[in-house]
From TrEMBL:
Pfam families: Flavodoxin_2 (PF02525). The gene is azoR. The keyword RNA-binding does not apply. It catalyses: 2 a quinone + NADH + H(+) = 2 a 1,4-benzosemiquinone + NAD(+); N,N-dimethyl-1,4-phenylenediamine + anthranilate + 2 NAD(+) = 2-(4-dimethylaminophenyl)diazenylbenzoate + 2 NADH + 2 H(+). This is FMN dependent NADH:quinone oxidoreductase. It comes from Streptomyces shaanxiensis. Belongs to the azoreductase type 1 family. Homodimer. PANTHER family: FMN-DEPENDENT NADH-AZOREDUCTASE 1 (PTHR43741), FMN-DEPENDENT NADH:QUINONE OXIDOREDUCTASE (PTHR43741:SF4). Residues 3-174 form the Flavodoxin-like fold domain. It comes from the Bacteria. Its EC number is 1.6.5.-, 1.7.1.17. FMN binds at residues 10, 17-19, 97-100, 136-139.
């Protein structure tokens, strides 16, 4: 049966997080369509993974037989994350924009799972794996907007997930999420609400189609 690896990185709980609301909608539909499947939920906000260390990094480029005890311990933790990703038939990532980029906890996870010669480079052990990214942001950073040049979430994740890992990446983008809380953005609330509904609909549709495809 298919396995969905669901990763959240928002520091806020579900009732206050746009990315979690959309990933939850995706996961609920996935379960409805594929009840026999497995969902692994990794919450990087409540249970962050270790940031990459010199021991974990250098161990990835050396023979395990030569590893020091420190390298062996650090690399063992890294391998758990890599193998979890490799076992997944599909991946769902909540990636809110914080200060123009992804949360540091999500960056730490990526630093652990991107391993040249295995997941990245010529090998690409997760090549073709469908990855759905919910890239929420407080403002608008799409083409034609004043802040288009500050979009470092989709650009970065496309490069890492698609170009480096070879994954089949798809984005859902809820925008203007700060509008209800920022008086200066009050006139943008209707646009935020429309973006949120569109994102929730996309999540349900994409989850349904993906679950059905993998079930076959």
């Amino acid at each position: 049966m298919a396995t969905l690896l669901h990763i959240d990185s928002s520091v806020f709980p579900a009732d206050a997080s746009s990315s979690r609301a959309v990933t939850d909608a995706f996961r609920r539909t996935w379960r409805e369509q594929h009840p026999e499947g497995t969902v692994i939920h990794r919450d990087l906000a409540t249970n962050p993974v270790p940031h990459i260390t010199a021991h974990a990094h250098t161990a990835g480029f050396s023979d395990p037989a030569t590893h020091s005890p420190e390298q062996a311990a650090a690399f063992a933790e890294r391998l758990k994350l890599i193998e979890e990703l490799e076992r997944a038939d599909a991946v769902l990532i909540g990636a809110p924009m914080y200060n123009l980029t992804i949360p540091s906890t999500l960056k730490a996870w990526l630093d652990n799972v991107v391993l040249l010669g295995r997941t990245a480079g010529n090998a690409q052990s997760v090549k073709g794996t469908p990855v759905t990214v919910v890239a929420s942001r407080g403002g608008a950073y799409g083409p034609g907007t004043p802040r288009e040049g500050y979009e470092y979430v989709q650009n970065y994740l496309s490069a890492i997930l698609s170009d480096f890992l070879g994954a089949d990446v798809d984005f859902i983008v809820p925008e203007l999420t700060m509008a209800p809380a920022n008086p200066d953005m009050a006139d943008l609330v209707p646009l935020f609400e429309a973006s949120r509904e569109r994102a929730l609909d996309e999540a349900a549709t994409k989850a349904k189609h993906l679950a059905q495809r993998l079930a076959v």
